[in-house]
Amino acid sequence: MAIVFNCPHCDHPYRLKDDLAGKQATCKNANCRQRITIPAPVGLRIADLGGILPDDAPADNATAPPADVEAAALAALNETAKEKEEAVAASDIPMTCPHCDHKWTEALSKAGKNTLCPNEECRQRIKVPEPKKGTPKENWRSTASGKPSLAKENFEKPTDVMDAEARVVSREAYIKGGGAEQDYEPVPFKHKFKIAMLVLAPLLLIGAGIYAIVAWRSSRGEELKMEPALAEFAAAREELDPVQAGFGAAILEMAAGEHALHPQSMEKDKALAQAHLHFTKARGEIQQASQKDTQGKAALERNALLGELARTQIGLGGTEEQVKANERYRWVPGAADGRALRVNEQIRTVHKELQTTLAPMMTADFDTKAIILRRLVRDLEKKGQPDLAAELPIFFFSESELPEAKAIVGLELYRPTRSASGAPGRIADELKSLLSGGVTGRVPTPASAQTLWQVVGAEKAPTLFGAPSGGSVTDPTRLAYTGIYLLKDDNPTKALELARLQGGSLSGQLRALLLVAEWAPDPGPAFDSAISLVNLSSKSKKEAPPAAILVRLAQLAAAANRPDQAKTLADLAGDDGAKAWAKGSGLAAAATPENKNKLEDAAMEIPDDAKKLRAGHFLGRLWLARQNGRLMSASEATKPVNLWPKGTVKPFGLAGIAVAQHEK
């Protein structure tokens, strides 16, 4: 039987083996811990201790070996102390130094704080981690219910009562319960509409965005390439006049270069090299065609094409960021980083390209070069390159022509801003020094220098020509003061009257009328006056009008949306090549992005005989298709082009549509 007794000090109950009788031990009550003597066993039932003494207990004098009994008693009585130590140990936070791998523990109170590694050779600062909250339950018996977590509840739900867990009422129960008899205020239509719009609006926006993306991808997918047009024309060159075939190839190469400057699928750095290659081929085609023109009959077309090529090559220039990205060339010589160029270091620039293109025009007539110069200066001024524009005269004007050419540049740079600062003022000062010895021997007479000095207010500038007086005037005076009336006095009526004034030559009058057409707000009267003068001159046969001036007047009339005057001026331009160029370049001048008018084939008629096709026909049909390509899809614009003469004219329509895709 067992020994059942209470501690005499704290009344803590014990139930021990019989063989521990007579031994001494420490009370395991943490609040007591007194030494007690274990009594001998007695045959009593102690109900309040929760147990019954066994009947087969050993005799009172039966004892275990003293050493073993003492150890067993201490183990039993120290059970609470051990549990307490284990609880304390469990509350400590184990630590491992990440620097020296030393292991130790820290008190729970230091969680989240910094401590030092106790290793004397380390002593690094380490943060004590936060202990994880919550411990898994090791035994289902420790749960509140004393049952396994998935134990089935031992009760049944009555079948004759409503389920208290029901969340949805059936329609039948709702009607029987009287819920359907309740009256609700109807929802207004306006409120329903607002709710519907809140739902539909995002869906509509998403649908519109998807449609726009699909349409954009479709337009990109139908992008035309330049290679088919180039290949088709190359196969049909023998059908054309050799000189005109070269001019036509140059026009296609120019379009291909412009197309390459706006790549969609090609890498931009490769596109720049491709554009340069096309422009170089165009220049070569013009030069080879000129060599075949032994009698110089196509000189006007050749010079006009060189001017168009130079204008297109301005697109090669770009910003410093584009230069660094190899997407565009620098405008003027010099390394991109501002350093001095190394010996034999070659850097492509717009300056060099323009100089190479314009140099063959050195021997052309002054009127042709002056017209091209004006247009190039305007293009460069829009690009913010007035200094490069100021250098253009030295590219293709002779020394005798330089004063007038420089003055033209100064006036064109002055006109948009009416400011003498910058390049206009510098050019005016340069001309004072250049013409200090007079104008004798200068051809043409630098009349525009007089205009420039007047409009910029140059100090101590010489007076080359006096103000007009009487009923007659010389050509230099007419040209100088026509410009003064236009730019300084803002009096286009007076300028037109001076241009019409008798005296001088027909060429001098046409130059003054061209200036009015270029600068006056309403160029119409200048066109009418030019037509009248040329008609009178043709009857008297005294002087042939300069073809270049009439071609330019036809271009300006087309750009001003005066097709009748443009056609009349083109017909007065001279031979078939000049007439075709006047009409074709007139379409190019009128086909601006702002023009929303679709063009018909009749806008640029072509001869049935391929041998009679001229550069102007090629250029006109290219710009006709280019204008229509801006206003419709590539597939729609291609339908009428497919009906054009294959090989000789159709390639120019395809090229125009291809370039137009970049301009939408």
Overview of the structural elements:
- By secondary structure, the chain is mostly helical.
- Among the domains are: 3-86, no CATH class; 95-127, no CATH class.
- The protein has 26 helices and ten strands.
- The strands form five sheets. A two-stranded antiparallel ribbon has the order 1-2. A two-stranded antiparallel ribbon has the order 3-4. Strands 5-6 form a two-stranded antiparallel ribbon.
- The longest helix has 33 residues, at 189-221.
- Residues 44-67 and 216-221 have low confidence and may be disordered.
* Radius of gyration computed on alpha carbons: 52 Å
Q: State the shape.
A: elongated
The portion of residues forming beta strands comes to under 5%
Structural class of the helix and strand makeup?
mainly alpha
**Roughly what is the average pLDDT, rounded to an integer?**
84
User: What fraction, in percent, of the residue positions are helical?
Assistant: 40-55%
Number of helices: 26
Give the CA-CA distance, first to last residue. Answer: 109 Å
Biggest sheet, strands in spatial order? Answer: 1-2
Q: Count every beta strand, where a strand is a DSSP E run of 2 or more residues.
A: 10
Q: Uncertain regions: pLDDT < 50 for 5+ in a row? A: 44-67, 216-221
Main sheet record:
2 strands, antiparallel
